[in-house]
Hints:
The complex is a heterodimer.
Chain A: E1 4-7, E2 10-14, E3 19-25, E4 32-37, E5 44-49, E6 55-58, E7 61-65, E8 71-76, E9 85-92, E10 100-102, E11 106-111
Parallel strand pairs in A: 2-11
Antiparallel strand pairs in A: 1-3, 3-8, 4-5, 4-9, 6-7, 7-8, 9-10, 9-11
Chain B: E1 5-7, E2 10-13, E3 19-24, E4 31-37, E5 43-50, E6 53-56, E7 65-68, E8 75-79, E9 88-95, E10 103-104, E11 108-112
Parallel strand pairs in B: 2-11
Antiparallel strand pairs in B: 1-3, 3-8, 4-5, 4-9, 5-6, 7-8, 9-10, 9-11
Amino acid sequence: xxxxxxxxxxxxxxxxxxxxxxxxxxxxxxxxxxxxxxxxxxxxxxxxxxxxxxxxxxxxxxxxxxxxxxxxxxxxxxxxxxxxxxxxxxxxxxxxxxxxxxxxxxxxxxxx
Amino acid sequence: xxxxxxxxxxxxxxxxxxxxxxxxxxxxxxxxxxxxxxxxxxxxxxxxxxxxxxxxxxxxxxxxxxxxxxxxxxxxxxxxxxxxxxxxxxxxxxxxxxxxxxxxxxxxxxxxx
Lengths: 112, 113
């Protein structure tokens, strides 16, 4: 099946620092989604990207759809303790679009 | 507008019993997806349904697992004769259409003893 690799796998940062993470695929994707999952909860949609090169912001979050369509980036500025969680990239199957593939996740810990 | 609802939130079953997981999509959403998540792992697609139809069940084990999304009522994921390896968090998501974003429920945590 499709593999979406995220890096880094985990991050430990000080409150106030900026965060960058990325997601890469071996295949071209037409849509990239970024989700955050808190422990014991379902993923919450943060940002959706639909066009190569697109740069979209949601508050302190900014995500970009890579030009090659095989990667995407998520940045969080001025991190706060509630940013703690696991961040997943996801996208619909390039072939059928029926199933969404999820990345391996980036675990973020913010130290106050 | 209520979000995606799943129940129960926690379910404990003994080996060999049946587990029934329910998912009510967001209002206006006719596309439902089920995912399984093991601890420390990402979500793995299981099945995609539209009202009364299974569109793609390629991620669901061929035996013991079934899913439905009837004309009326919630979508149901059924696991028969559960085994310890079925212990996981099961999430459903709904969408307006196949190309739109998916919104997730809080999940059902299944524990098989």
